[in-house]
Amino acid sequence: MNFLAGKTVLLTGATGGIGAEVARKLSAAGARLILTGRSATKLKVLQHQLAVEPLMYCCDLTSTAEQQDLLQFCQQHGGIDVLINNAGISQFGLCQQQQFNDLISINLLVPMQLCQLFLPVLRQRKGQIVNVGSAFGSIGHPGFTGYCATKFGLRGFTEALQRELAGSDIQVKYFAPRATETSINSSDVVQLNQQLGNSMDSPVWVAEELIKQLKSNELRRFLGWPERIFVRLNGVFPALVDMALKSKLTVIELFAEGKNH
Ligand SMILES: NC(=O)c1ccc[n+]([C@@H]2O[C@H](COP(=O)([O-])OP(=O)(O)OC[C@H]3O[C@@H](n4cnc5c(N)ncnc54)[C@H](OP(=O)(O)O)[C@@H]3O)[C@@H](O)[C@H]2O)c1
């Protein structure tokens, strides 16, 4: 049986690299979609590429008023079965250069607020939540202090909520891609990954993995080798990961300070 057929999925960040691929796969599986993004033009382009015409809601999710309007919009259209918190931004640079407010707002506060807001709706439908984290939600990486903080936070929030709702019909899942070929990564980050020999996944494959998790009972999914090993290693023997990253620090600093040009 196709679990997704007829289910209504609210997907944030649908106009992004991973989000658009997830939207295509969900639509092909017969899901009814409510897609959000800030760009009306990008949403329109995506709308024409999908098997089933989606509902679209263009907004900046960092506004709590817009979040309330989105909730109302979803309720007016029959509620939702699945919430996928995928919208996010990244920043690469040394700690002194980072702007934390925007990062914390969209990567951490917004998914927490949307979970809170949509819980009553999801309860009615035995629904599920998927929060899109990152390998950097388990491995602190130089040059990504703010981003790592938000994704570590999101992982903690997701785990706590999942355990809080363990006796209920709602499933709460954490999905953690590693570096993926989307425009969230600046050209400096792409070049750094090439220099360090870090693989980057295609958004099509990442979207397939997210759909697999959605259909399964798997509460946590981490993508890619060796990142999955590093995630575990960092939990048990962080000093080993300290050493591995220290050996790469000179290169990372060069890129983070923009001195690679
Ligand atoms: N790509 C990677 O290397 C990678 C690795 C691990 C985890 N992830 C995570 O995967 C998720 C998707 O990333 P991606 O690579 O697909 O990034 P992306 O291509 O840059 O897409 C980001 C999406 O988030 C939306 N967004 C950003 N700020 C928003 C705001 N204030 N309000 C509403 N929507 C907002 C964007 O909407 P508009 O474009 O319409 O503004 C866009 O749809 C993120 O949570 C990211 O942290 C990505």
TrEMBL record:
InterPro entries, alphabetized: KR_dom, NAD(P)-bd_dom_sf, Sc_DH/Rdtase_CS, SDR_fam
PANTHER family given in the database record: DEHYDROGENASE/REDUCTASE SDR FAMILY MEMBER 7B, DEHYDROGENASE_REDUCTASE SDR FAMILY MEMBER 7B
Name of the protein in question: Short-chain dehydrogenase
Any Pfam family matching the protein: adh_short
SMART domains: PKS_KR
One GO molecular-function entry: oxidoreductase activity
PROSITE patterns for this protein: ADH_SHORT
Gene Ontology annotations for the cellular component aspect, listed alphabetically: membrane
Similarity remark: Belongs to the short-chain dehydrogenases/reductases (SDR) family.
Domain Ketoreductase: start-end pairs: 7-193
Protein keywords: Oxidoreductase
Organism: Rheinheimera pacifica
